[in-house]
């Protein structure tokens, strides 16, 4: 990025792709959830949510932070015009994630009965895991390839191959099943989910190979060490972040019925629409942060982060209010009348997501400026605090108590991130 670099133009360029992609993914996700709620019912939908969370944990293990490290290193190499290094980095990362994803998928299949029946008391979950374990490999590849595109500032490709294509394909399949009144079991739904990820991952690999076909892959041992020195702390941070945001589903899955998990999971996914603007900014801000930080332009960096935080609040406050006031009506429309019992959970989570969105991208700033270990410590502490709190409240207060803990822990993490951003970087973002 040169001296004429315009923050607004960059945000508009990346934001146009990211916004359209996130909106399409959001709409496809809503459509899929509406159909799944009607095809499966609360109990099977609860098992499906548990399956998705288990897969997400395994994906984190498989990619070990390589996707985020790829984004940072590819962005730096592009700024220096080192295209051979970019090809070497992307090839190394894809091979590493393919290998680790294959291993994790195998072990997930091998221990599917142990996880489903012994841990969660659900033979239905065990069957779902054995059928859908390869999603781990496919999602891992999708993440690392998508972040390679993003590091190259190919925002359109990054956006559409990190959720849009697979979501749309999955929605179309569910529409066909529903329109033709075909009875769909949970296993059939998961098989089609696997196929949608396979198609997306295969196409994205071909496109990335063609983009870099004119260059020779070069990466030395020092480059590999740098890659993994960045990736491993990020992996721990990502794991802790997942524990922070998703352990609620796991704990509910152990202590309450599958139907209650279905109610909570439905409300949780509906509340995620509030964080859409933050997801868009997190997708396009990393190259900006890297560029401005290493140019020592802290004032402009702070301006960017405040601008995005203000934008987040303006967009998300009305949306949060709508979800709180009309929670019953929205749940009934999206999932059916069987899910109106999740209205209180939706109101609580919507409030927490609003606070989270309004505090900006301080965690991303720490991650992209060399303070990923600090972020790791913060996230791990808050995740452990949250998990312990879930265990304390789940038996007495059920899904509503778990929802309050989820909202409070997210706020706590944001406060700590803002404090260390100011202390370490001198930025109030």
Describe this structure in words.
This protein is mostly helical and 429 residues long. The chain folds into two domains: 219 residues; 201 residues, no CATH class. It contains 16 helices and no strands. The N terminus is likely disordered.
Largest sheet: none
Radius of gyration: 21 Å
Q: Indicate the structural class.
A: mainly alpha
Straight-line N-to-C gap: 21 Å
Low-confidence stretches: 1-5
List keywords for this structure.
429 residues; mainly alpha; 2 domains; 16 helices
Question: What is the fold's blueprint, element by element?
Answer:
Elements: H1 7-63, H2 66-80, H3 83-110, H4 112-119, H5 123-132, H6 135-151, H7 155-179, H8 186-211, H9 221-255, H10 258-271, H11 276-294, H12 298-325, H13 327-335, H14 343-358, H15 362-368, H16 372-425
């Amino acid at each position: 990025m040169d001296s004429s670099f315009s923050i607004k133009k960059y945000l508009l360029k990346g934001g146009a792709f990211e916004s359209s992609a996130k909106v399409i993914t959001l709409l496809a996700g809503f459509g899929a959830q509406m159909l799944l709620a009607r095809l499966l019912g609360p109990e099977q939908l609860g098992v499906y949510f548990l399956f998705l969370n288990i897969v997400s944990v395994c994906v984190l293990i498989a990619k070990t932070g390589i996707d985020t490290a790829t984004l940072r290193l590819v962005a730096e190499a592009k700024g220096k015009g080192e295209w051979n290094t970019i090809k070497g980095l992307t090839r190394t990362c894809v091979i590493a994630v393919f290998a680790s994803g294959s291993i994790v998928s195998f072990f997930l299949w091998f221990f599917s009965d142990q996880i489903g029946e012994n841990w969660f008391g659900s033979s239905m979950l065990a069957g779902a895991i054995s059928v859908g374990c390869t999603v781990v490999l496919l999602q891992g590849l999708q993440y690392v390839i998508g972040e390679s595109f993003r590091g190259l500032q190919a925002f359109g490709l990054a956006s559409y191959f990190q959720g849009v294509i697979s979501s749309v394909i999955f929605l179309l399949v569910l529409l066909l099943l529903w329109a033709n009144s075909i009875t769909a079991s949970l296993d059939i739904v998961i098989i089609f989910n696997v196929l949608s990820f396979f198609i997306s991952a295969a196409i994205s690999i071909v496109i990335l190979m063609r983009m870099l076909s004119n260059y020779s892959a070069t990466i030395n041992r020092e480059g590999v060490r740098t890659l993994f020195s960045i990736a491993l702390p990020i992996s721990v941070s990502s794991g802790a972040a997942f524990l922070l945001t998703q352990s609620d589903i796991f704990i509910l899955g152990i202590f309450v019925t599958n139907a209650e998990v279905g109610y909570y999971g439905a409300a949780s996914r509906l509340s995620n629409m509030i964080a859409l603007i933050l997801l868009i900014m997190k997708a396009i801000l990393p190259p900006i942060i890297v560029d401005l930080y290493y140019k020592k332009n802290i004032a402009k960096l702070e301006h960017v982060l405040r601008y995005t935080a203000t934008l987040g609040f303006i967009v998300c406050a009305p949306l949060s209010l709508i979800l709180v006031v009309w929670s019953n009506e929205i749940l009934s429309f999206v999932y059916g009348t069987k899910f109106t019992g999740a209205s209180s959970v939706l109101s609580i989570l919507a409030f927490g997501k609003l606070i989270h969105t309004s505090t900006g991208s301080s965690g991303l700033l720490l991650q992209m400026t060399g303070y990923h270990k600090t972020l790791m410590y913060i996230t791990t502490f808050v995740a452990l605090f949250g998990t312990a709190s879930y265990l304390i409240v789940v038996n007495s207060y059920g899904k509503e108590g778990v929802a309050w803990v989820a909202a409070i822990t997210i706020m706590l993490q944001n406060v700590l991130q803002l404090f260390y951003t100011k202390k370490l970087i001198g930025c109030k973002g």
